[in-house]
Amino acid sequence: MGSIDIGRLKRDINFLEVASQFGYKLNKTKSTANSIHLKSEVDSIIVKKDDDAHWVYFNVHDSSDKGSIVDFIMCRQPGLTFSAALKRIEKDYLGKVLDVPQQIRDTKIIPVKKDRHSVSKLFEHMTALNSSKYLQSRGIEDAVLQSRRFTGTVVQDSYQNVVFPHIDKQGVCGFEMRNSNFKGFAKGGIKSVWLSNRLVSDDRLMIVESGIDALSHFALFNEKSTRYMSIGGEPSPDAWALALKIMNKFNMQGGEIISGVDNDKGGEGLDEKLTAMTSIPIKRELPKIDDWNEMLTSKMKG
Fold it and tell me: Would you say the pTM of this structure is higher than 0.90?
């Protein structure tokens, strides 16, 4: 598996042509220049290209069915491991001329453009978040936001959205926004990783799927020596590289790496990728139900 270029698979294999092999057909009325709507007999997916030219998709009926071509194949061939999926995709699709309808072959897609400058300008006007009615409704008290672990790492915009800034090697590159009945990501932003504050006493780095999960885990267990990193639903190759760099550094300094991703199909896939992409020992810590926030709110209810 070490010789397989995952980025190349995600970039060079035409996702639309592969999807057509699984019965998906083009729905032109719901497609745009930046996103293609494909429909099968059982569901529908939206396919896009990021500005790094990697194909991505999501299922409009199943929030766990999303990501890259690797995720697409694994979701449709249950039991296939991450490593086996990479090998099969390379063998069956990379550099192959597939038998597809001409309409699929002729369909072009324009990558979604990123605008780092606009994202930075928006972020400059955000303010520190010390209290949030939305987070309180999710079981997260203000004391969590005001703790040394999270102070300054969660902010708010002019609409009172809770904002989790994503960073890459150049600084803030995007941000996740959350509020009641709203979940979004900065237009033109780059999805990367979100980090809590690091303290001198830290001996554990927990990888979660969202900032909400990190806040919730802290609210549940108050582990003062645990640092948190959110990798989101489907990290890009650059985000994976940054996450692995942070994990390696933490491990070299004697810290323990914990996989705290969700207890569902999507979380299982992310956990498998984590362990497949590094030789660092990774301990799995599962929430008792789907995710840490559901566990927190369930505890609050009774």
Answer: no
